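input
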Amino acid sequence: MESRGSVPAHPVSYEGVWRFTAPAVDVSVPQARRAVRDLLDRQGVPVEDDILQGLLLIVSELVTNAVRHAALLSPELAVEVAIGAEWIRVSVEDNHPYRPTALVTDYAQTGGRGLLLVREITAEAGGTCDVEHTAGGGKIIWAALPLKTQL
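output
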């Protein structure tokens, strides 16, 4: 029963979950980024530009990690975008059993800071991120960001 002044029970038009797969190859990185941007545009998601740019960088980092570190055991990866009324969650799934951790910054290294970057972007936006195991022995790495910048 809906009372006067309450929020309608139906979801906002841009809410939903979308999933696509891609081969674990370098060209999938910009393709995944473009696919996520196109989806948000097509759905009319009211995402602020700084959140959008952070989200797209997270997609690039997560897909790059799957391509570089999981392709041998997982020739295909999956990208999922879940959008709620006030948040957006992106995840990348692969079938490799290794569960990565964010490395400590080592300025002598030229790489290895992708998950650290994901964690920092997510925290700065007021979101959260994590790594989960799948039932099939692989993993899902995800980040959820608010659609509005935290004040």
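quick obs: The longest strand covers residues 16-23.
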